[in-house]
Specification:
The protein is 34% helix and 27% strand. The protein is of the alpha/beta class. One of its GO terms (molecular function) is oxidoreductase activity.
């Protein structure tokens, strides 16, 4: 079968290779999925570079998220062969291939209202947002939510989830086009960080946009300067949820400042729930399915790529040039 393979870590454009590999076989609790589409995620690029906390053995096929059809089930599974599903793959047999392996309990029926690209782009971003906003930060209706990288994949999902929860959402973006994308996702106010190159002015812009009370919840997949500015804009008893470091700089939390201002810094690694508390992921999936059915949540797919464009898409994503989700059409 055709697949993208990583034989050595490095830049995606240099180390990703088209290859013919053996079709994998599902093990206990696993299913084999014929891939329709695979969404690209920042962790894909980090894993290819060898810089992610999870390091699959080489060689591996990237693509942590997919939509496809169940074609075979391993021992101990109750998967329905032929069902169209979405969810997370099990590396080293990721979604950038004709066939991928997935854990049966991490797959969910693909909603009929989603096409293959939208279904492929749903699970990781919306599960991450749900856990960050609801389980970790306990976002309440009427609160103010500040979302960094609000035009990106996880950011646009967080904006939609915040609006669905009844929050006022302030999005932070980098550029006019991304500002428009954040507004289309539902952001009530948008701060274009490129207009505030000086850190103090950026922090003040966040405070102004959030209002006198500040941000009750901050969703931060960026780190670095974004985190530092957020500590200036966070509300009394506010919660900053650290989701990632897409900006390339790991922020350092000043615990004395958190004490004086009475705010919390919370970490979220969604992937850890897959091994520690998978039942919570299923709970989140049920809650998310209701919001999908109501029309409140729809993945923003900005670009649909052909299979041969996977490396190009990962390079664009890692450089921060994309808005919404980039999805590879594997079956086409």
């Amino acid at each position: 079968m055709r697949a993208w393979s990583v034989g050595a870590t490095g830049d995606p454009a240099q180390v990703l290779e088209r290859a013919e590999v053996e079709r994998p076989e599902p093990g206990k609790g696993e299913v084999l999925v014929r891939v329709r589409a695979a969404a690209l995620n920042f962790p894909d690029a980090l894993m290819i570079r060898g810089g992610y906390q999870e390091r699959p053995p080489l060689p591996f096929t990237p693509g942590i998220e997919l939509c496809g059809d169940v074609v075979a089930a391993g021992p101990g599974t109750q998967a329905v062969v032929g069902e169209r599903v979405m969810g997370a793959s099990v590396l080293p047999h990721g979604g950038l291939a004709e066939y991928a392996i997935a854990a049966a309990d991490m797959l969910f029926p693909a909603p009929a209202r989603f096409d293959d690209a939208q279904a492929a782009a749903f699970t990781v971003a919306y599960q991450t947002g749900w856990f960050a906003l609801h389980r970790r930060a306990a976002l309440r209706s009427g609160e103010t939510l500040l979302v960094h990288a609000a035009a990106g994949g996880v950011g646009s999902a967080a904006v939609q989830l915040g609006k669905a929860a009844g929050a006022r959402v302030v999005g932070v973006v980098g550029g006019a086009a991304k500002a428009a994308a954040a507004r289309e996702s539902g952001a009530d106010a948008v701060v274009d960080r490129t207009l505030y190159p000086e850190q103090r002015a950026f922090a003040q812009a966040l405070k102004d946009a959030c209002g006198p009370g500040g941000a009750d919840v901050v969703y931060d997949p960026v780190g670095g300067a974004a985190f530092a500015a957020s500590t200036k804009a966070v509300a009394f008893e506010g919660r900053i949820v650290v989701v990632g470091f897409a900006g390339g700089e790991i922020a350092q939390a000043a615990t004395n400042h958190a004490l004086v201002k009475n705010y919390a810094v919370l970490g979220l690694h969604w992937g850890l729930y897959r091994s520690r508390a998978p039942e919570l992921i299923r709970d989140a999936a049920r809650d998310l399915a209701e919001s999908v059915q109501s029309g409140a949540l729809t993945p923003v797919v900005s670009r649909r790529l052909e299979f041969d464009q996977a490396a190009e898409g990962l390079t664009e994503l890692a450089a921060g040039r994309s808005t919404g989700r980039l999805v590879v059409d594997v079956a086409g």
